[in-house]
UniProtKB/TrEMBL annotation:
OmpR/PhoB-type domain segment(s): 1-102
Species: Blastococcus haudaquaticus
Cited PROSITE patterns: OMPR_PHOB
GO molecular function: DNA binding
High-level lineage: Bacteria, Bacillati, Actinomycetota, Actinomycetes, Geodermatophilales
Pfam families: AAA_16, BTAD, Trans_reg_C
Region Disordered, residue ranges: 257-276, 1115-1138, 1177-1197
Family: Belongs to the AfsR/DnrI/RedD regulatory family.
Name the UniProt record assigns to this protein: Transcriptional regulatory protein, C terminal
GO BP terms in the entry: phosphorelay signal transduction system; regulation of DNA-templated transcription
Keyword NAD: no
InterPro entries xref list: AAA_16, AfsR-DnrI-RedD_regulator, BTAD, OmpR/PhoB-type_DNA-bd, P-loop_NTPase, Sig_transdc_resp-reg_C-effctor, TPR-like_helical_dom_sf, WH-like_DNA-bd_sf
Composition bias, Basic and acidic residues: 1122-1138
Top-rank taxon: Bacteria
Amino acid sequence: MDAGQLRISLLGACTASSGDTPLDLGGRRQRAVLVVLLLARGEVVPVERLTEAVWGDHPPADAAGALQAYVSHLRRRLQPGSAARTRSSIIVSEGRGYAARLSPDAVDVWRFERLLDRSGTASARETAQLVGEALALWRGPPLAEWADEPWAEAEIARLAELRAVARERLMAARLALGEAALLVPDLESMAAEEPLREERWRLLALALYRASRQADALGALRRARTTLAEELGVDPGPALRELEQQVLAQSPALAVPVQRSGEPEPPPAAGPPDDLLDRERELVAVRAALDDLVAGEPRLLLVEGPAGIGKTRLLTEARRLAAQRSVRVLTARGSQLEKAFGFGAVRQLFEPELVAPERRDALLAGAAASARTVFDLAPGESPEGSFAVLHGLYWLAVNLSADGPLVLAVDDLQWCDSASLRWLAYLVRRLDAVPVLVVGTVRTGEQHPDEQLLTELSLEPAAVVVRPAPLSPGAIADLVERRLGGPVSPLFALACSRTTSGNPLLLRQLLRGLEADAVRPDAAHADVVVAVGSRAVSSMVLMRLRRLPGPAADVARAAAVLGDGASLPAVAALAGLTEAETAAGLAALARCEIVRDEQPMAFVHALVRDAVYRDLPSAERALRHERAAALLRDAGANDEQVAAHLLLAPARGDPATVEVLRRAARTAAERGASDSGVTLLRRALAELPVGELRCDVLTELGMLESRIDGAASTEHLLQAYQLGEDPRERATLAVAIARTEVFASPPGVATAFAREAARALPPDLDDHRQALLAIERTGGYMHGLEPQVWATTDPGRPVGDGLGARMLAATLAFEATVDGVDRDRAVRLARSALDGDRLWAVDDGLLWVVAANVRMLADDDLGDFWTRARALAHARGSLFTAMSVSVWEGYWRWRRGELDEALACLTAALDQDRMWGGSGIGLPYTRSFQIGCHLDRGDVAAARRAADAAVEGPAAGDGGRLLEHAVARLLAVEGRPADALARLDAIPMPVPVRNPVWNPWLTTAAIALDRLGRRGEAVSLMEEEVDRLRRWGAPTYLGTALCRLGELRGDDGLDDVREAVAVLAPTHAAVELARARCMLGLRVQVPDEEAVELLRAALDTALDRGALGIQRRARAGLARRGRPDESGRDAQRCPTSTERRIVELAAAGHGVRDVAQRLFLTPGTVQAVLESVSGNGLKFPSSGPADARYPATGRIP
């Protein structure tokens, strides 16, 4: 046999082969002799050391003879077919010892180390190839067979460290190759595996930063700091501290390194234009963003600074540079006057692209169709909500970018309408793989109505914020010389610098005044600079106006009231001048740089317009806006244009004004711009202090506010209810008010109102009475009120098939669930409530959620319920509906073991709750489910962070009770069982919740008692829980409890665990099934073959679902059974249900964008999933069962 074909593997099970033929290395001790020799790397190993390694403290009498026999057998087996005299070439005898002499490629450990050494000086691409080849040699834990042997411990630790270094080096190389976004999940897993390795945190933060997730990068660094402090009591090392500073500063050093090739270097970039001095740094950022865009990387570039610092000029330069790169630019500009226009800035951006009918139809096809209402292109259609519109506009931008990279340039974001700002925030969070660059300017130093939205934009991970600095003295001297001539005295330039603080606009206005006065730039006139400059922009502009001949000042004031974009006839009409006189006035204003010499009219800068506008007394401004509204209405302007002026006009109790405002609000609402509609209706309300019309306006306002502001909605609907006279309309209002008060008002308010409103109903409105009764009882329970407050009467049975009857059915279904006795009745009532989805028509997310929860707690299959519910939230545009869906879909996914998707839903719910601004009653539910998800993942630190972020104070209501249970469970897991019991004892429970599916008290107390050594008490509690769950009959909850009971009973609990596996197997509770299988596989009474199957199935599911604790236990169990996991599956996982659907649609022939539109995803998300699949990053099981006896994930959804 050719010794060159010999291959020996130590990175996993110890095996050998010659070519394709496996070699038998004999028994464990004989293999140990070979391994010890191989670890010596050709050095002689004395017989004494071999004896100690093989037999420890109990060697045989003739150890040397036994070793000689082992060596002889190994020589024969490693070189079969060779003559006996030639076999000593592999294992040689030297003195009183032996040595293994093999080629460098014969042993996988040696090849691994050599490849790793070579990668240390290679390029990123070569490193990725070399390290990838090295890691592929690993088939499992090294020397696992001898893990407990002293002679192997050091080598195992050394090899494990080298593998860890190799994995980190591979990640670093792939980061350098631009794969940041794809690596984030892997790096998250690596950091979780070994959280004390600072290099992993560094790589994770760098990947997040390069994936345009700056905030997440800083969050990862904070997590690293916390982990190191808690575990080791140390601060992060220099590398992490330096990276944190670089991320905060958005350092160019963090960019992906350029991989050199034989291509010629690009020509040097052109210098800045002559009028852009001291802006080299800002232009570098602009060019970089445009270059990234051309390369397919989206960005948000924000230019922030005080008025006059040059933000608009930089935006103009960005547009010019984009044109140089053949990139299309769409522009918009915010305006104080147009702040109430629903999607006004969006319309500026896109309307020019939608002029041609064929192009318009193509751009607004598919998912973009819901944006048609924004452009008034969907007459007669039912108005869709803001979520649908935001999504449609997103797809409009995606469709436009299909022709090539696109720049959206928006000046004065602080004055854009709220709906447009909200859409921009929606867009930039979904820009992955969409070639769109958003460039916006924001004026700082002032309070703006949408400060929160602007802050969210600036904190987006994809955002690059540029803050132009004041002009330097050198740049100021240069501009002075250009305007006034030279030479310029340093004293004169210094006076200009101090007077204007380097503000380009103030400097231009100053130089304009100095030029008009023929001031020379010498030292003698430095004091003139101070005198002229002290007048600032406002004084200079007004002084210039007074110097102008004729009616120019009147034209300027009329133009300031009408705002930029006003037509010449409109300016003339408001100024009371002829059009010829107005044209002459505009020409004079342009000559002195107050307005631009262009049509439609625009001021040279917002500060100049402000100076003219604010020179008018406030009362006069209001009257001029009133006159402007009348003129525009008579000229046939649309309601929004008229309403923009009515917002600033005095209230006169004019019904015609109210109708204009209501129509404009209706238009805004139909476009999905609820914020604008609310602003207009609030102004209409101020126009009508009394009168019949006021009730209608209050109702419209309250219903529109319910989408975005729960507290304000309740206030205005209550006023409408008090003013209303029609009994049926009052009843409908009462139901809406009570439902909103459950979430927007303090505990007890909704229950009291619903009870009183029901008493006031006439006899013929029985369905409304049932609706109010349902809300009274549900609100009372949710708020934790005593039963005597809300359960004073027998609710009876639902009567009829109306919406009120369905609401009552949902309430009674939940009460039956809490009682825990009649599961069939609870399911029947819940199904009745949800039948036909009719309840969705009147309920944003209260009682249909209650009915859905009953079915979840009863293990009644909901089918595609949550998919339809999410589509409803999207179409309705209700923030509250979206929040409700996120919370309870998150709970549903948690119970199914879809932990990653559950956490994503719950995180979204927290954001939506904050935006909706209710009482926060939903937050405890969300936090309690979050804690449970993290604990099921085995991530105790994340569970603690979620608990610490929860609202502090005593438990309040049903959600507070669940949160307290979750925190108690966490305390027990953290090793604080006494604290856990104390927490449980302190939980108020005004309503006895007998059903363990909704009251985990028994389980949590049992866990704590067991950890206190009180196992007998713990077993008694779990036995009681199992008895109750048998009565209820929901298999996932029963299986979970049986598993816990079996664990507590120890050897006597084998049958309980077996039953748990059997009960859970046909359900969707994948993680619970994996936990039960793992627990059964760990039982010594279970035969090896069955145990290995169980443990492998549990490990598969744990890897798929991210359950780290089950992974660790299953691997340990396999190792103890002598069947260690050698699959190397750490980096693999099965797809989530969303990823599975993506692949199915793609396999059916749908393109990336089509798939994204169907699933309400971004094209980047779809592309990333498909790339992961093609690169084997995801593990898709075959269509058939992987194991008929123990399928890997239970029931595949």
